Amino acid sequence: MSKRDRRVAARTRAASPPGGKQDQPESGVPAQPDAAAGQADEDGPLAKVIPMPVFDPFAEADKRW
């Protein structure tokens, strides 16, 4: 292998997950989400969303400090 090929292979090994295993299950079926994540939607109402004003830099420049 050339020096460039060895460098690419080393970078690929360094970026792969430890143990050489992928996050996908072997059966091809996607992993189920955690039970705690599903319960968060059913516990109660969500917090009230407070919209933020749109930032206008030109109007900000005209204001006093």
Which descriptors would you attach to this protein?
3 helices, 38% helix, mainly alpha, single chain, 65 residues
What can you see in these coordinates?
The chain is mostly helical and 65 residues long. The chain is built from three helices and no strands. It is elongated and about 65 Å long. The model has no long low-confidence stretch (mean pLDDT 75).
Outline the secondary-structure elements:
Layout (H helix, E strand, L loop, with lengths): L2 H13 L19 H6 L16 H6 L3
Stretches with pLDDT under 50, minimum 5 residues: none
Q: Roughly what fraction of the amino acids lie in strands? A: under 5%
Give the N-to-C terminal Cα separation. 64 Å
Residue share in helix: 25-40%
SSE string: HHH
Overall outline = elongated
Mean pLDDT: 75
- Radius of gyration from the CA trace? 25 Å
Classify the secondary structure makeup into a structural class.
mainly alpha
Query: Total helix count?
Result: 3
Number of strands: 0
Specify the biggest β-sheet. none
